[in-house]
Each structure stands twice: as C-alpha cells, then as structure tokens.
Predict the 3D structure of the following.
Amino acid sequence: MKTSFLKDQIISKNSFLCLGLDSDINKIPLFLLEESDPIFSFNKLLLDALNELIVSVKINTAFYEVHGSKGWETLEKTIDYINNTYPNLFTIADAKRGDIGNTSDMYARAFFSHMKFDSITVSPYMGNDSIEPFLDYNDKHTILLGLTSNNGANDFQYSTNSDQDLFKKVLIKSQEWKNSNNLMYVVGATKASFLKDVRLIVPNSFLLVPGVGAQGGSLEDTFKNGVNDQIGILVNSSRSIIYAGNDQNFLKKSYEEAKKIQSKMSVLLNNIND
C-alpha cells in the first residue's frame, strides 16, 4: 500500500490512528481463554469493532513469537484476516529487524512476500546494507527507528560529544540510501518537542508515533510538530485501547477509548482546512 492511499484513508475516516495489537495472553479477558486460539479471537473482535476508527494496525511480533509455532500461527491468522477482511488498513510488522544483507533479505521475504505486511519496523544500527533489502520492495514501506521514547534512548540517540545528535545523523544518512522514498520513521510521542527537528530532515516521510495514551505523549503536540502537507503521521495506541476493559463488555470500553482519540484527531485534521 502506498502512502498516497494511506492519506486518502486518513481523510476519509478523519483519523490517523494506528491500533497496536500487543496482545498478551495474560491480559486479555478471561472468557476468551476458552477459545481454541484466544489471542486471535481477541484480535478479531477488536478489529471488527474498531476498523471504522483506525487506518492502520501494528502487530508487535514479540507477543506472538513468545508462544513458539502456535504464536506464529496466530500472527499469520491475524494478518490474513486483516488483508482479506479489511484490506484498506495499513499493516505494520513491528519486528525491529536489521541484520547483514542476506539475512535482511530473508526477513523482507518473510514479512513482505509471505505474510504480506505493508511495512516493517527496522533498526538502523548496522547501516545501509542491512536496510536496503527491505527498501527494494517498491510497494512496501520500511519504518526506521529514528527517535524512541524509552529511557535507554539517552544511551546512544543523543550525542554530547559532537555538534549533532546521533539520531539526526541517522536520519540524514538514511536519506542517501537506495529507494529511500520507501522509508518511514518511528518517533516517540514523548519526544514531541524534537519532531520539528525531525521534520526539517525528513519533511516528506510518514512518521509512526507511539507513546500517545498509556505512555503519556500529547496528541496535540505530536500533530502540531509532526504534520506535513501529506498529513504524514500515524499515531499508535495499544494498551490504552485494547486493555480498556477486561470483562464481557471489553469491546465497548475499547471502542470508547478509540473513539475518544479519533474524535480529537478529527478536530485536528479539520483545523488544517480552516
């Protein structure tokens, strides 16, 4: 899926909300444990209830890999269900891959060709030859970790020994890579004040912004500092939506939480045209 189509979906739904399916078997409603595949049942119910409010789905693969072959089966069932039932949703494999060229090529084939995700998150630490195998897929997008919200980001992403933060060097260098037009970037919502700096370096790329909701990031600040002419922003929310309730009525609470975010997004989007 091209980001031009994603922009159309954002305008159509008045939403730039990405639903994070960080589905933890220990946190889903207990009644679902009676299902043959509890996590898939949980995911399916959420997708059916929330698809009108969201434009994207991010699946954190760690929450599936932890269950071994059964988890991979659940992951594939979930992405197949999205692709077959809600093909207009932009899908993200939150796998944070990145390795030597031939290994990255296998990762790209697994997530793009086999499972048919629209995009994948990657780590840039090993440089261009670890990322370019993903960028070779012209109809797919590679989401580079740019500036993250975790405490450990201070270890490397900000530099005190040079005139330029490391995360800025990464962004600048990535623009030189082959097919860099297929890049998107992760920028944490709790780093919203740095979004202006990010936008100066990558003015035309879509940004994936986690951290709004449970992590305390500001939606308004994120939008103000991150929006571009193409809107160019996806805000991910996971825990605050999918775990809003934990009983038979959990979908009602999840819908209410997602609707609350989407309504704020609608106001922000409409203000662009005022």
DSSP finds twelve helices and eight strands in the chain. The CA atoms of residues 184 and 260 lie 26 Å apart.
